[in-house]
Design goal:
By secondary structure, the protein is mainly β. 12% of the residues lie in helices and 58% in strands. The longest helix has 12 residues, at 2-13. The protein is elongated and about 50 Å long. The termini are far apart.
């Protein structure tokens, strides 16, 4: 299992990824639903992300979220190694960002 995860990470690091938000769909308390475009390996798809955020006393803002994606939606083939190991198509993008002033 660990080797599969390492292989998947190395495979995904070979592709550039970019997220651009285009708007706010909804907000309840400290959870907002952002809409935008996610580009992976040159393929851009619309995406909706649920993001939770926290404003800290030092004016640092922490944003985090989890999103499931399919690699083949972005024309990325799930990696394998000599037909012995193979990963699945679905991955989980788990992110945490900190913004400091």
């Amino acid at each position: 299992m660990i080797n599969n995860i390492k292989l998947l990470i190395v495979h995904l690091l070979l592709f550039a990824a970019c997220l651009s938000t285009t708007g706010l769909h909804a907000q309840t308390g400290n959870i907002s639903t952002r809409i935008g475009n996610l580009t992976i390996a040159g393929v851009t798809k619309p995406i909706t992300l649920e993001v939770s955020w926290t404003m800290h006393e030092d004016n640092t803002i922490t944003c985090s979220g989890i999103q499931k994606l399919k690699m083949t939606d972005y024309q990325v083939q799930p990696p394998g190694f000599l037909a012995i190991m193979k990963t699945g198509d679905e991955i989980t993008l788990d992110f945490k960002l900190e913004f400091k002033s």
